[in-house]
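Practice problem 4.
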């Protein structure tokens, strides 16, 4: 983890938020490469689950909602961590994270466990007297339930169908930790899939397959993944069945995604609290009912971390350490680096012209500084799958070499074939 965190900071993937002020616990900034990586990951998720399916539509709802949403959802009453405080150093801990009866920081005596609501509060309104207290959403899915009727009637979707959303969520985590694994501000990628109650199990099983396949498609190592079923007594207040996909991080197994059967809990609650009927009318059978919900709920930051951990590799090449991020090319922040062998003799100009052409198609990078070997290594470290070298032969016959990040093998090809060659290998499109 230390090596990966160091690479992320050094190369501009992820920094601690507000670093010049000493940082702020549980908040992270994605730098120039990190934002590309996370965006590619979210785009691939959207491509797979929204664009490529005709039974799912998207939504981008506001982060701040009417406060009653969180009363109806059960979060005001139920979204608690059980915490204990150290009587000596005053540090707070989640009771379920403790390994012994004493404070893990100073060995001091701990208080009795108490409840702590993890929602972040905010006030909305321009006057102190009239501003309403509400919350930054702790999960993206509630707006999907609240907007259920508007979405299905405007898009003419029919059960079974799903609504997907990617967006920020906020939780006042007691102990943010393990880099971006547990943060206070993070992004979720959630689907609420509406089906008939009698089809819950069928859809739960179908979603298990679809979710698992997506992790394989983005390149995670299958032997580092597993399913973990929640025991009945540990289920969230809304769920009758939950199974998590876990990944084996360097610090241990951790949840990447939860798959829950939420039944008709949320739609029923919002109907009750808003006074608006959110039941579904099936015009083909003349039936009215409250659909059940199967919810795959993934974290974009955690998946980004898993992808980085999985891709990070060190090896020895010609007596030197090579750090290489073996990212799936479709996730790589930069798809191709264009490198003139030397700056002189018109090679720099030729390479710059080529880079300008290729950047219309995908993210490219031009680099002319330092020995070619060093430039290759810099690209390996940030996961760039292809390095294109413009050399003297390029001037003569319009061909360049293309070096593969993983095998380090080079092939020669005409410049005008590059866009198709690289585009195909970096595309989201599945065969
Ligand atoms: N709507 C259901 C829900 O929010 P969850 O298991 O609490 O379920 C779903 O969260 C996913 O969101 C988790 O599997 C994880 O990937 C991500 N997540 C939750 N809390 C997080 C945190 N504090 N930091 C980063 N990601 C988090």
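Answer key:
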């Amino acid at each position: 983890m230390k090596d990966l965190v160091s690479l992320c900071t050094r190369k501009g993937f992820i920094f601690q938020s507000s670093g010049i002020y000493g940082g702020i616990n549980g908040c992270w900034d994605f730098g120039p490469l990190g934002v590309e990586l996370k965006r590619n990951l979210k785009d691939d998720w959207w491509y797979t689950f929204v664009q490529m399916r005709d039974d799912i539509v998207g939504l981008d709802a506001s982060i701040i909602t009417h406060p009653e949403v969180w009363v109806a959802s059960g979060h005001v009453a139920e979204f608690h961590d059980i915490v204990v405080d150290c009587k000596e150093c005053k540090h707070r801990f989640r009771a379920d994270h403790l390994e012994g009866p004493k404070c893990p920081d100073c060995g001091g005596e701990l208080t009795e466990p108490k409840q702590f609501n993890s929602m972040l509060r905010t006030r909305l309104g321009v006057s102190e007297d009239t501003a309403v207290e509400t919350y930054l959403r702790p999960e993206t899915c509630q707006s999907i339930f609240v907007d259920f009727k508007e979405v299905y009637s405007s898009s003419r979707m029919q059960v079974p169908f799903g609504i997907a959303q990617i967006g920020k969520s906020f939780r006042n985590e007691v102990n943010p930790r393990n880099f971006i694994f547990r943060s206070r501000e993070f992004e979720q990628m959630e689907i609420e899939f509406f089906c008939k109650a009698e089809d819950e199990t069928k859809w739960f099983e179908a979603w298990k397959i679809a979710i698992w396949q997506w992790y394989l498609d983005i390149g995670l190592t299958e032997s580092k993944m597993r399913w973990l079923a929640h025991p009945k007594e540990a289920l969230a207040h809304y769920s009758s069945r939950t199974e998590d996909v876990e990944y084996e991080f360097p610090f241990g197994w951790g949840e990447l995604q939860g798959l829950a059967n939420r039944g008709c809990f949320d739609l029923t609650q919002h109907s009750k609290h808003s006074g608006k009927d959110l039941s579904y009318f099936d015009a083909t059978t003349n039936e009215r009912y409250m659909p059940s919900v199967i919810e795959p709920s993934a974290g974009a930051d955690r998946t980004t971390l898993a992808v980085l951990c999985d891709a990070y590799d060190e090896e020895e090449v010609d007596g030197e350490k090579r750090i290489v991020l073996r990212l799936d090319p479709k996730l790589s922040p930069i798809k191709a680096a264009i490198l003139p062998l030397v700056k002189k003799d018109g090679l720099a100009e030729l390479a710059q012209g080529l880079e300008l052409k290729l950047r219309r198609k995908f993210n490219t990078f031009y680099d002319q500084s330092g020995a070619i070997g060093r430039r290759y290594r810099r690209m390996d470290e940030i996961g760039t799958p292809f390095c294109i070298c413009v050399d003297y032969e390029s001037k003569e016959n319009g061909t360049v070499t293309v070096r593969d990040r993983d095998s380090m093998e080079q092939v020669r090809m005409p410049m005008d074939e590059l866009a198709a060659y690289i585009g195909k290998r970096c595309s989201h499109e599945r065969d």
